[in-house]
Design a protein that fits this description.
heterodimer, A: 465 residues, alpha/beta, Alkaline Phosphatase, subunit A, B: 940 residues, 18 strands, elongated
Chain lengths: 465, 940
């Protein structure tokens, strides 16, 4: 079997395709039970996880940034819900996402904020033709460590793409709705349906299904995947450059599912943890139009479910890399249950009005309480190295816009949660004046075994320990 | 040069040139319309007519446009800190012009809609602007004598709607798996854009799951047509038992729980003695049959048995006798499965085995005559008594059950009330509802009917349409499993791939089948696996258009007929081609029959996809699903009104399509469609009920899409109207002139100035700020004219604060109007822009790519053709299908492909290649169209 996989891989390379696939050895699942398994087993005892959580439309910075630097800073009102996790919280101010600035491209700060945040690349201003960005930090991490888990990464979300009308100022809607970029031309669509996430994670494992029946199902799927890979490879020859990029997406997707299938066959499917319940929540119910966008009255139920899925995924080590924007840029979600029944984007253009700023602060605080919810769950699960999942993780929470009214991309709001298994000296406020946020991503990647020389517009690293 | 010096020199050039260029530009304009030879006249300032050599585009630019730009644009767009980063002073060569086409496009658009120069700057006169605008239009359209650049569409995957529709047409199943797929990103206003549609692993997983579910649904299904049935009424069948009246109902025989029910129950053939009834029938074919009898019986009082019956075929008993234990006629149907019968005439007999002999019965009848039938009053009295008795027994049982029973407690104490009396509550005690007990003391039997059903073997004609459409072959004496499988796979793959399947593809699919078959699976299941492979193949998921000469870069080639058929069907139906299109493509006759096919396709009900997908996005009708008018302000808004509003616009669009009306009807028409609910909302009298009717709008203030409640609602906030949103909607969707979003740092309004007054008044204050006015001048005027329609589209003469509505508006350029009727007239005056907009959007939708500047010639030609033909809708569709961009595509460019904007300069060399011959391995057009209502008979 490994022979077959390698020859296909070589064929792919021979066609000059530009697929960002993991390194060769990762394509041979049987080797997971060789020496790599030993290394994996050691790591699997307490694997290090990394996650990026994103909130859109900027933050009300006066309530966010502590005035003092160092370990003895005063927790600001918006960060107050994190008091219990202070020792694993690092507030970082002064970071910059320069590629979200126009740099000659005119308006479009929301599209750029989201798409440049994890990539550090200037997104090409286009409505559709020739999308171009850069590879995002999470995908770069997945490229290196994704092969150790069944899902190389998980892209979760709360809001799906905009369906009607145009998005930000001449930028394709893909830019303002996508955080994760597999390659510089491939946005990764988010899964916003908790039911779908659960089903995918646990492969529709039905405890009543006999092993024989499951084996047959998996073998069927494998033979289908082999067949279509063959089809796609034969097709590549007749396609033009932009067409081949689309076919690459297809090939990449198929390969990824094949690898996961092989792992499931070799290791057995991963069942949900005891007590985990499949959600029955329909995230589309409760959506209504508000101005040119929509808001969802069930958001308050939806977000905790997605965070639950994050916990499940980390807990079962089905993945170690997750992204989850709490809403997409330009989101006009209303937050009535948080005392802010106003459209988020509209309110973030406060124009100095203190009433609007107060509303904005309430929205910011609500989001942070949800972060606290996540941290609590992660902290409750102890791992073999004595720490909790939270201790073994690095979670970045922030936004590509600083003040939503000015659309500035310096002095970004950003906090780092977790201890990365002791590799981070947490519990302080660090000011990194003018440092590209990609430097921080590189430091995070270092700590999960995904070191890179550069990422986007990075100039070095941020010292975290 | 100082700015004012530049200006005066520019003016001098301009006036001199205008004179000399008059002729030249006229010639250029004529060539654009296809008249004349397309040679551009002299550009020299001395009014010489003789031409030495034609000037280059760049020279024309320098003489015509540059002075204009200098005068009106360079102040803001002429140096390093140009507004918005838009620089108009860098066109210093032919190459710079070509590279700067997108900027020139924007400039042209902004000048045309009077957005630039900004309102507070001196405006150019028509005489000043026209030469520049004309040059820009001509230049951006490209060299009129060169072949049109058809562009190149990136390979596109099926979007959600297309996937659902294709599954529906391919498999004939009612199943929409794509509803669970992630939402497709839209590009250029539509969600079928090849560049934007991506394929993430999560979507691939869903494709795999959907393929399995869809094929399972299609072919692993139960028959929907029941097997043939022959039923014989026992009352009138031949036999040794006396016949009776088939309409007789059960009188006597004791009270039953519900008198009416009992009295309606058929009596059937009452067997007071042993005997048989039979029917002679013709069995249609060899096979397994089910013999059934609906019967009831009474236990004998002396011989305490229940009646025993048996079936015989031609006098020979089949299977075992069975006992009729029910005495409640409603539930007693007994079936003998798997009775093998041979074709031909047979006698089916039902025999009662354990009743009294006829002699015994005759004697008993003499000794114990049956009681006279009871009167109505007697029956009712009996019934009341029985009900009372029932209630008493029930109460007792309940009392017993509520007291905890002693260990090993009394029998019946733990049972449900009424259970002791023979079963579920409501059933009568034994003997109730049964045939009168025989005075002989032996069991009696009543038979309602008996029947033979079969053959039970499932034949294709009994299967649902999806099965018959896919499983076009079955293993038989003449066809092996493998041969049948290959026939099925070949046809399915051809239809799914939308082109003849290649032998090597069939071979690889057969490998899938062989694998499953070797596993020992039933035929359908092994075929299932191969068909799943088809449904996740890229040849199905993507609409592929392969270059026949991949080695030749840049060569324009004509799409083959299959590719054309796909483009047409996905354009007009958002689904795969049907058998007729496939057949024409196979014979290479699609292009020869284009007009007829377009007409047929528009008439087909599947063209409703054009409304769902094109109108849904162009008019943004899809937003109707989510509008939520504030219940406090609009308590009458409900789901019925929402769906009526949506349906009105859909029917309206459909009328324009089906009646081939002028597209200008979208702006203003004298009719619409309403049902009772919507008519009430509009104040239109005389329409009631849920059905939609066509009504005339002559003389009313409504007409066209802008005044339809759907559009008016989706452009409003939940509690109030938004003139800005409405203006933006009109500009964006009808005139292709969308204003950009507001800048982020819109300065706060002047200190201490409160926003007071009516909505209009408050917005006037916004527009008096010059930074805002540039865009708001466009939008607000249009929106104000529609202020008589509230946020749900109902007519009003006062706003929420009871101020009278002032519906006057002004557009830049000085045009003013009052109210919706005048607004529509103004828009009709701008018909050229509207048609241009509609053509552009429809072409974007049809091609699945954004339009580039080289498409201008195409859109201009289409718009001109429409103008010559009354702007009819079918002309729009046919022109699009016939245009070069739809029929051809560019070959692969040199790689990498940075930007596809070719501008006015580079044109691809060569004309289209030869149309490839229709492929071999043509489909078996097996068109079983047998429809059945798919009702599954309930099991007995």
């Amino acid at each position: 079997m490994s022979q077959l996989i390698m020859s296909r891989r070589t064929m792919l390379r021979g066609l000059g395709t530009a697929i960002a696939l993991p390194v060769l050895e990762s394509m041979i699942p049987t080797r997971l039970f060789g020496d790599e398994a030993k290394a994996a087993a050691k790591a699997a005892a307490a694997p290090k996880r990394v996650a990026w959580l994103y909130v859109p439309n900027g933050i009300h910075m006066p309530n966010w940034t502590p005035s003092e630097i160092g370990p003895n800073y005063q927790l600001t009102p918006t960060l107050q819900p994190l008091a219990a996790y202070r020792d694993r919280l690092m507030v970082m101010s002064g970071l910059v996402c320069d590629k979200a600035n126009p740099n000659g491209d005119g308006p479009g700060d929301h599209a750029r904020a989201m798409s440049a945040y994890l990539t550090g690349a200037q997104p090409r201003k286009t409505e559709g033709a020739n999308l171009k960005n850069g590879i995002s930090a999470d995908q770069a991490a997945a490229d290196k460590v994704g092969h150790l888990t069944k899902f190389r990464s998980l892209e979760l979300g709360m809001e799906e793409g905009k369906q009607i009308g145009r998005c930000d100022s001449g930028y394709s809607c893909a830019y303002s709705h996508t955080l994760s970029w597999r390659s510089d031309t491939t946005p990764v669509v988010k899964d916003c349906d908790p039911r779908s996430v659960f089903d995918r994670l646990f492969s529709n494992v039905d405890p009543r299904e006999s092993a024989e029946s499951r084996a047959r199902r998996e073998n069927d799927r494998k033979s289908i995947l082999d067949f279509v890979l063959d089809d796609a490879n034969r097709m590549q020859g007749g396609l033009g450059y932009t067409d081949r990029q689309k076919m690459d997406e297809y090939l990449t997707a198929v390969r990824e599912i094949e690898v996961r299938l092989a792992k499931n066959q070799a290791q057995g499917a991963t069942p949900p943890p005891a007590g985990a319940v499949r959600p029955t929540f329909d995230q589309n119910a409760g959506t209504r139009k508000l101005g040119g966008a929509t808001t969802n009255d069930n958001y308050v139920l939806h977000l905790p479910l997605m965070l639950d899925m994050m916990v499940l995924a980390f807990q079962t080590d089905l993945t170690r890399v997750i992204t989850l924007p709490f809403a997409d840029e330009q989101s006009n979600q209303t937050y009535g249950w948080a005392g802010a029944n106003v459209p988020h984007h509209g309110t973030s253009h406060h124009m100095g009005d203190p009433a609007k700023q107060a509303m904005l602060a309430k929205i910011n605080t609500y989001h942070v309480t949800q972060l606290a919810y996540l941290l609590k769950k992660l902290d409750a699960i102890k791992e073999s190295n004595g720490g909790s999942i939270l201790d073994n993780s690095l979670i970045a929470y922030g936004c590509g816009n600083s003040d939503g009214n000015r659309h500035n991309h310096d002095n970004l709001p950003l906090i780092l949660l977790g201890k990365g298994a002791g590799t981070v000296r947490s519990g302080r406020h660090v000011h990194c004046d003018g440092v590209p946020v990609t430097n921080l991503w590189l430091s995070m990647l270092d700590r999960v075994g995904a070191s890179l020389p550069r990422l986007g517009d990075s100039t070095g690293r941020v010292v975290l320990s | 040069m100082r700015a004012d010096e530049r200006k005066s020199t520019g003016r001098l050039w301009l006036s001199l040139l205008t004179a000399g260029l008059g002729v030249g530009l006229t010639l250029a304009a004529c060539s654009q319309l296809g008249v004349g030879t397309g040679k551009v006249g002299s550009a020299t300032p001395a009014a010489k007519v003789a031409v030495a050599k034609p000037p280059t585009q760049f020279e024309l630019f320098q003489h015509t446009v540059q002075p204009f730009l200098e005068q009106h644009c360079y102040d803001c767009h002429g140096d390093d800190d140009a507004e918005n980063g838009v620089r108009l002073d860098l066109f210093d060569s032919e190459a710079a012009l070509a590279a700067g086409s997108p900027t020139l496009e924007k400039a042209l658009r902004n000048l045309t809609i009077h957005k630039m120069p900004p309102r507070d700057e001196p405006q150019p006169t028509l005489a000043e602007a026209t030469p520049a605008l004309n040059w820009l239009r001509t230049y951006l359209a490209g060299d009129p004598s060169a072949p049109i650049n058809p562009g190149r569409v990136t390979i596109r995957r099926l979007n959600r709607a297309e996937y659902n529709n294709t599954i529906r047409d391919l498999l004939a199943v009612d199943f929409q798996p794509a509803d669970a797929f992630p939402v497709d990103d839209a590009g250029y206003g539509f969600d079928n854009n090849g560049d934007v549609l991506s394929l993430a692993p999560v979507l691939m997983e869903k494709y795999l799951t959907a393929a399995g579910e869809a094929v399972d649904k299609a072919i692993l299904c139960d028959p929907v047509v029941p097997p043939p049935l022959q039923r014989w009424d026992a009352a009138t069948a031949e036999g040794t038992i006396p016949k009776c009246d088939p309409k007789a109902t059960l009188g006597g025989g004791g009270p039953a729980p519900l008198g009416a029910q009992r009295r309606a129950m058929p009596l059937g053939r009452v067997f007071n003695s042993k005997g048989a009834i039979y029917a002679d029938c013709a069995i249609p074919a060899d096979g397994d049959y089910v013999l059934r009898v609906r019967a009831y019986g009474t236990q004998g009082t002396i011989v305490r048995q229940r009646p025993k019956v048996a079936f015989q075929v031609d006098g020979v008993q089949v299977q075992q006798p069975f006992t009729i234990v029910e005495d409640q006629r409603n539930t007693s149907v007994y079936a003998l499965e798997k009775t093998h019968l041979r074709a031909g005439p047979h006698r089916i007999t039902l025999v009662m085995l354990n009743g009294p002999t006829p002699e015994e019965a005759a004697m008993a009848a003499i000794l114990h005559p049956p009681p006279p039938p009871k009167t109505e009053a007697q029956l009712e009295a009996e019934e009341a008594a029985a009900v009372a008795a029932e209630n008493a027994v029930e109460a007792a049982a309940l009392a017993a059950a509520s007291n905890p029973p002693a260990p090993g407690g009394a029998p019946g104490a733990g049972r449900r009330p009424g259970a002791g009396r023979g079963g579920a509550k409501g059933r009568p005690p034994p003997g109730f509802g049964g045939p009168p007990p025989s005075p002989t003391g032996k069991p009696t039997l009543g038979v309602i009917y008996f029947e033979a059903e079969g053959p039970e073997e499932i034949t294709p004609d009994r299967m649902p349409a999806s099965f018959r459409q896919v499983m076009v072959a079955q293993p038989s004496a003449t066809e092996t499993k493998a041969q049948a499988a290959e026939a099925i796979i070949r046809r399915f793959a051809t239809r799914a791939f939308r082109r003849p399947v290649r032998d090597e593809e069939v071979a690889r699919l057969m490998a899938l089948w062989t694998r499953a078959d070797a596993d020992g699976r039933p035929f359908e299941q092994s075929v299932d696996l191969a068909l799943q492979g088809v449904l996740v193949s890229p040849a199905f998921l993507f609409r592929t258009e392969l270059d026949p000469q991949p080695g030749e870069l840049g060569r324009v080639h004509t799409l083959n007929e299959y590719e054309l058929a796909s483009r047409m069907s996905y354009f007009l139906w958002s689904s795969m081609p049907d058998d007729e299109l496939f057949a024409l493509a196979a014979k290479g006759q699609l292009r020869a029959n284009l007009s007829a096919q377009i007409r047929r396709m528009l008439k087909d009900p599947k063209s409703s996809a054009l409304i769902d997908n094109f109108a849904g996005q162009w008019l943004q009708l899809r937003a109707m699903d989510n509008v939520a008018p504030d219940p406090a302000t609009f308590p009458d808004f409900d789901e019925a009104l929402r769906s009526a509003m949506t349906k009105e616009t859909q029917l309206f669009f459909n009328a324009i399509v089906q009646e081939d009306r002028s597209v200008l009807d979208f702006i203003d028409a004298d009719f619409t469609f309403v049902n009772g609910r919507l008519a009430k909302h509009y104040g239109i009298p005389g329409v009631t009920g849920e059905e939609f009717q066509r009504v005339s709008l002559a003389g009313s203030s409504r007409g066209g899409v802008i005044t339809q409640a759907s559009v008016l609602t989706i452009t409003s906030y939940p509690a109030r109207t938004s003139p800005v949103q409405r203006g933006k909607w009109v500009l964006e969707n009808l005139l292709d002139a969308a204003p950009p979003p507001p800048p982020p740092n819109v300065p706060a309004l002047a200190e201490g100035k409160e926003l007071t007054g009516t909505l209009r008044h408050r917005m006037e204050e916004h527009r008096s700020n010059p930074a805002c006015a540039a865009c708001h001048a466009q939008m607000d005027g249009i929106g104000f004219a529609l202020e008589n329609f509230d946020a749900t589209g109902a007519w009003r003469t006062q706003d929420a604060s009871h101020d009278p509505i002032d519906a006057a508006g002004t557009l830049p350029g000085g045009v003013s109007f009052n109210g919706p009727v005048e607004l529509r007239r103004i828009l009709l005056d701008r018909r050229d822009e509207f048609v241009d907009c509609l053509v552009g959007k429809m072409l974007t939708f049809a091609l699945g790519r954004g339009l580039e500047s080289y498409d201008r010639r195409t859109t201009d030609a289409i718009a001109a053709a429409m103008k010559r033909n009354g702007d009819r809708f079918s002309v729009l569709i046919e022109q699009i299908v016939r245009c070069e961009a739809f029929q051809k595509r560019n070959g692969r460019p040199k790689e990498p492909d940075p930007s596809r904007t070719a501008g006015g300069g580079a044109q691809p060399a060569g004309s289209g290649g030869p149309t490839p011959a229709a492929g071999s391995g043509v489909t078996r057009t097996n068109s079983i169209q047998n429809t059945n209502d798919g009702k599954t008979r309930g099991d007995s």
